[in-house]
Amino acid sequence: MASIAAAASSLMNGERAVVLLFVLRVLSSLPPCLLSHGLALCSLAAAAFHVEIRLENSSSLLRFKTRPGASSGILLAAVTLPTVLISKLIQLSRAVSPHQVSYEDFEYLKMLYWAASVSSFGVLVFLYSALQHSPDKAYPPSSNIQSTSWLMSCCIGLYAALCCVSLAIMSNFGLQLAFNLFWVVCHGFAAVKLIQHLLNTFPSCASVGEALLLSAGIVLYSGDMLACTFTKINERFVSFNLVSPWYSTNRSERSIIIQSVLLALLVFPLIFKLLLRLWERPSTMTSDARTLSEVRRSLLFFGSLACMLIVIAPSWMQFAQDFQSHPFLWVFSFVFGEPVKRLSLCVYWVCLIYASVIKFYNISKNSKVERILLRKYYHLMAVSMFSPALILQPEFLDLAFGAALAVFLVIEIIRVWRIWPLGKLVHQFMNAFTDHRDSDLLIVSHFSLLLGCALPMWLSFGYNDRPLAPFAGILSLGIGDTMASLVGHKYGVLRWSKTGKKTIEGTAAGITSVLVACSALLPLLASTGYVMTQHWFSLLLAVIASGLLEAYTAQLDNAFIPLVFYSLLCL
């Protein structure tokens, strides 16, 4: 018994224990109609646990250079996105019976769940196959993993059966079933190709888990927009229904604009790289010729970027959604629909950003303050920026988040490609705000902070009976993570582990600060018309679980903690 307990303790570290708690909490809230989805999540978690153990005791994937100091994070990453969607399904299931949510919207979210789940499972199968065919056969001495490879085969078989049966019930067999199966399998293949591309193109920039979460998210986001486009093609040019009708559910103009612009910017580097190959001829150049070439390259970049944003992306938007005017004119009319409130918010944001950036840039260049602590002040700035807008102008904040993310993408593309004349200046400026999780190749922390605040709000549009859910990112990152870092750095003595830096005092401060913020926020939301349906027991579990995850995980916490917190708040 002692040897079994020792073997179990060697396999179950703090991060895995928190993930297990997270998954079990979600599964305990499943309604009967989502039983197959819950069993599929169990299979996914078991496969991810198996692959993570194998990977951490093998050197077969050393061709992928991952971020130094980070664990693989495969279990956490594999279950995060599917669990977010199954939590949202649990939330919508409470509204389907009283007809507050349409059946089509519920089925549409089921398709998104399977697409995200197959994306994660596809990457797991790829990693497992790489481990199986590697010459390195190292296994943990305290376990019998080598003799339990059947576990992965059982997980794959059970998962495939559950996926096929669920999609068959949704599709009523026929061509729609074939298309839906093909569609979710394409998500898996695309996620595998994308994670290989990310790890090869940006070495030492991310752990395997972080790359998995990013790949699955991008594939899901792109596939959703492509399915919407195929639905429009099917409606206009094909006489029979091949694409599932759930993708034709009502979408807001804001979501179409944000999705089209962001996807266009994600594809743009590939198009620009192709244009450069056609434009440039390799030759020995003098310094003057090289300068002229940089100017031409810059003109090509900004010209193609303008064409992408002004012509191609708006055309895609107008095809996918029936805009009465040009999408950018729609944005203009939307902003000036309530000019006093929305323009006042814009002025407030610009002043706050300018003052904060100038102050903290000078501090970061001249001060010996630790960079990670300096960056936590930006988390507090996110609270002061986004909280008033989320309470008073959530729809405008929705659009503003998309615009800010688009600006960040353009700036990062300019920095990475060193586009004249801004590339070097942007690179020098951004380096003042980096920490150990960033690299010269890719700076990701500002993206993760913005997305961490934006994703819970984006996911909450539509039916939402949990008023704190949209604030999940602001509460967990802006308040909880910040207080945990500040208190832990200054007063922390008791560490969670011998090798880690996180302290019990910091974690306790983070959990307490989030609970206090929730106590202050709930009455404020009630006064603005929100219906209070947040249960304190569920809230307490959500805050504790996200606080423990911040303490134990070595992954990019800005990416994972808001999604975990949001999922638990939806229950």
From TrEMBL:
It is found in: Endoplasmic reticulum membrane. The keyword Magnesium does not apply. Belongs to the polyprenol kinase family. Its main location: endoplasmic reticulum. One of its GO terms (cellular component) is endoplasmic reticulum membrane. It comes from Eucalyptus globulus (Tasmanian blue gum). InterPro entries: Polypren_kinase (IPR032974). It is a multi-pass membrane protein. GO terms for molecular function: dolichol kinase activity. Its EC number is 2.7.1.108. Keywords: Endoplasmic reticulum, Kinase, Membrane, Transferase, Transmembrane, Transmembrane helix. This is dolichol kinase.
